Structure formats: structure tokens, C-alpha cells
């Protein structure tokens, strides 16, 4: 539930920030009557995301075991791709996201209400669909079907509360540090999701080595301990992983984490032009 809570918090705060930027732009420019179109776009995007999550959760149960394992493996790989793209995109575009959204909204206002709905919808639906597929991939293998739902709900509610407080300046958060640390944690979560996807491919017979374990500490591993549940939920640690699962986790987790945390080079400021003497 911890990993799914983190997904809900991270994705939810991104959605909340996007919506708050659009709302603040209309409020500060004395265009409050247009807020209904923004909320309409947000509502449609939320409904589509929830419907997509329900389709993933309940539609797969109709498949055969092999096809179900293949679908879950593909979903895991897609989720890892989304996570990787999202954390690097946010690191690169966070500073310019506000001005870009305000520019799109200004252009949409000139077109009409349908364009305003479209801007709000497109700004939210991408994050919503990402959240749906990440939730589905991270919730695979959960023995208690209610815990993933509780985790994602708590994460989204926390994000809404934080976004509301940020909007009214009741609380201040260093968003750069927040997205950096949550991004690093999501890299570890994504490594676990990829490991689960490799295991599904082995279960479906696409990849070999299902019975070839890298190590086995099942005899000394307490499955009910809190740290065991935390490691299993966050990084999908299992006491007897296969060789391919272990290689997949290490091959993705370590290099992506290093690249993500590697400090970016700041561009050198151009030299100021020489001042001309006053006449």
C-alpha cells in the first residue's frame, strides 16, 4: 500500500498543480465565469481515468491464465515506460509548466468554451491515465484487494489537501525537492514493477528460467514482518527471485536512479555587453 500511496500522492499533486495553475490564471485575470468550463474538462478527464482503471482491473479477469499473464507483463512494461518518461519530463519542464499552461489557456479563451474544456481535459487526462495504469501494475499480486484502493485514495486525498493549501498559500513546499525525492522513490517502485513484468513473462512461457533462482532466503525471511511488507510493496522484493528478475531490477533501477539524481549542468549566463559611454 505504501508504493501505491506514493503513486497517488505524486501523480495527484501533479494533477492538482495543473488545475490550480489554470484556476489561478482565470481568477487573477477576472474571468471567473469561465471556471465552469475548466471544471467540466477536469470532470471528464477524471471519469475517463476511473473508467480506464476499472476496465483494466475487471476486464483482465475474463482472459485465460496465459493471456492474463501476458497482459499484466505488457501493462508493467508500459507503466515503467510512463514512470521513466514522467519523472524526467517533470524535472525538465517544472519551471516552465505554469507559463506553458497559461499560454494554452489564453489561446483557448480566444476560441471558445469547447477549447477551454479541451485544454483542461488534456492537461489532466494524461496524468489520470498514467495513474490508472501505474495503480494497476503496482497492485498486481496483492492478496488484499482493498489495500491498493485505500492506498491510492489516501494518496490522492493527500495531494488534493496539499494542492488546496498551496493554492491559498497556507503551506509552502519546495516542489523541486519534493519531485526529486518522490521521483527517486518511483524509480525503485518502477524497478519492482519491471521485475514483476519479467516474472509474468516467465509464467506465460515467453521467457525461460522460471525455476532458476538467483538466491533463496525463504527459510530466514519473515513474511509477516513490517520491513518485509515494506520491501515487497516498495521494490517488489521477494525472498527467492529468478535470475532474470534480479537482472531486470538491477539493470533498470541502478542506472536510471544514478542518471535521475545526477546534477544537471546549469547553462552559463551570456556575458553582459560592454556599456557605451554617456553622451
Describe the structure.
There is one protein chain. This protein is mostly helical and 279 residues long. It has one domain. Helix content is 72%, strand content 0%. Helix 4 packs across helix 5. The relative contact order is 0.16.
- As a percent range, the share of helical residues equals over 70%
Spans of at least 5 consecutive residues whose pLDDT stays below 50 are 268-279
- pLDDT averaged over residues: 83
Tally of separate domains:
1
Distance between the termini: 71 Å
Q: In terms of structural class, how would the helical and strand content be classed?
A: mainly alpha
Any idea what the radius of gyration is?
22 Å
Number of strands: 0
Shape: elongated
Keywords: Membrane, Transmembrane, Transmembrane helix
Membrane topology: Multi-pass membrane protein
Main location: membrane
Family: Belongs to the oxidase-dependent Fe transporter (OFeT) (TC 9.A.10.1) family.
